[in-house]
Amino acid sequence: MGGAVLVADSLHRPISPELARQLRQLYAVQLTSAGNLRVTLIPVQRQKDASSCGVYAAAFAFEMAFGAGAGTATSLDVDFGSPMEMRRHLARCFEAKEVIPFAKYIIKKRGRKAQSRVTTI
Length: 121
Hints:
Blueprint: E1 6-9, H1 17-26, E2 38-43, H2 53-65, H3 83-96, E3 117-120
Helix pairs in contact: 2-3
């Protein structure tokens, strides 16, 4: 993403001090002279259960690798189907040694679509 730091955000909360510290360490070469880091928070779908965070993280990483979430008006707030379907897809990708985007399903929501937001930490 041209040096952009993207963070998938399903909780829509500010970055915690601990995460900010970790991001500054990971992306130290991108810190400003004042020690700040520009981060884009991409709104994403919240997982449906308490045990699927890993497969959701993989789905969002695949989407970001394919360029989704790069624009400030882009959201990854989509439905990838059931966690079981997502796990099967991820397993097929590993077996084939190929990165294939996850299926996306259209879901109708009320209200405004969440927007990406840029913050400095």
